[in-house]
Amino acid sequence: MCTIPPPPPPPTLPNINSPTNVQKNGEGNQPSFDPEICTWASKHPELREACFKNRICYEKPPFKYKYRYFESILQIGPTCGLVALSMAVNGEASPDELLSIAKLEGYTSNGEMFSCKNMVKLTEKAYSLAEIDNVNCTLKQGGLYSSETIERLLNGAVLLVPYDADCNHSPCLKNGHTAHWALVCGIIIVNDPGMTTSVTRKMSMYFPDMENPNTYLPGTCMT
């Protein structure tokens, strides 16, 4: 079921050798940074903040990355999958509209989306409702780090991913007891995979590849 984990704890403070902490500038609660930190991400404050908190790519851009911004939508009730889908269509189909469709089609009773196959069907309906064309919705099974998935993310694709959420929203294995949906909106390959690797950290929400700790999938939790 779509159980909402408690809010994540505050980020760990940098050590004494780390750059200055992130501070708020008072204008729209946007973070401000040391002007020399993560300048490659200056056009995306949320991406820059996440990289800062997780201590990656301080001084130079990653080997490859792709990031798409989506406006957050507050989840009400057990509707994490519907909220994630609404975000994916830029709010053109609201969670309430998607809930009505999902109930009518027999996909859900209260908002939980237990079937990935039904989620694909609902996604197609959502994009049609939002009048967004040239979108190909497919169901993929298996790990997130296939060469095909990485290539698609680098080309701008996004993923709706069901997973077990730990207390800080990071992925865990709890036999579906804390089932949740996330919108994966990009990918960061820190270094050239043929040369070196990097330490895994958690982003706004990261899905770190434990077999290849050079690759990160930034995403957004619905809370």
From TrEMBL:
Keyword Protease listed: yes
Coiled-coil spans in chain: none
Keyword Hydrolase found: yes
InterPro entries, sorted: ACTMAP
Catalytic activity: N-terminal N(alpha)-acetyl-L-cysteinyl-L-aspartyl-[protein] + H2O = N-terminal L-aspartyl-[protein] + N-acetyl-L-cysteine
Domain of life of the organism encoding this protein: Eukaryota
Region called Disordered, residue ranges: 1-28
MF terms (GO), sorted A to Z: aminopeptidase activity
Compositional bias of kind Pro residues: 1-13
Signal peptide positions (record): none
GO biological process, one term: proteolysis
Key words, A-Z: Aminopeptidase, Hydrolase, Protease
Family, per entry: Belongs to the ACTMAP family.
Protein name: Actin maturation protease
Organism: Spodoptera exigua (Beet armyworm)
Top-level taxonomy: Eukaryota, Metazoa, Ecdysozoa, Arthropoda, Hexapoda
